[in-house]
Specification:
Layout: E1 16-24, E2 27-38, E3 47-56, E4 63-65, H1 66-79, H2 88-96, E5 107-120, E6 127-137, E7 155-161, H3 165-171, H4 176-180
Antiparallel strand pairs: 1-2, 2-3, 3-5, 4-5, 5-6, 6-7
Length: about 180
């Protein structure tokens, strides 16, 4: 026979929540950290829960010019006491080999940046970590003139471990099964 024990809400004074609203590559993000102690009743041990969430708050993904991104990165490097800055000249040769010769016209976009952690001191209540990252170069990528055999129309990378519909939709992923149908 299984005993069902009702839990009361979080114990007063044992809860912490920290949050941040920030912008990364012109993508508005919200981050939330939550720590909670749930008092057990009827012989059930107390449970501590830690949740972390990072996700976009804007409806549509926003992009950023690559030169602006380089300037931002260099500003961060300077703010934190130095280090070697990113040199635009070093990037020109690599990007030119992909047909991206006008550095000032290259735009990048974070379509999705999602992280959800739900961890409990009671192992059975811990859920798997979910994440999603989708980064896209918005410009057409054209190889050097000597490589006319192919042309890359778009380039991106998506890494994810979630099946949340809203998160997947924002990533604008192609489904191989639907492409073959």
């Amino acid at each position: 026979m299984t005993q069902v024990v009702e839990r009361v809400s979080a114990a007063p004074g044992n809860n912490i929540q920290a949050f941040i609203d920030l912008t990364l590559l012109n993508c508005n993000l919200k981050g939330v950290y939550q720590y909670q102690v749930i008092k057990g009743e009827g012989g059930v041990e107390d449970e501590t829960k830690t949740k972390i969430l990072v996700m976009p708050t804007d409806e549509k993904p926003q992009g950023m010019k690559l030169l602006d991104l380089i300037d931002e990165i260099n500003g961060i490097i300077s703010s934190f006491g130095g280090g070697e800055k990113v040199k635009k000249e070093d990037m020109v040769e690599t990007l030119a080999s992909m047909g991206l010769k006008a550095l000032e016209n290259i735009s990048v976009q974070i379509r999705q940046l999602f992280l959800y952690v739900d961890k409990s001191s009671i192992e059975a209540n811990t859920k798997p970590c979910e994440y999603a990252f989708n980064f896209v170069v918005l410009n057409e990528v054209k190889p050097e003139e000597s490589l006319k055999l192919f042309n890359i129309k778009s380039l991106g990378l998506a890494v994810y471990n979630t099946d949340r519909k809203k998160i997947i939709e924002r990533m604008q992923l192609e489904n191989i099964d639907e492409l073959l149908a």
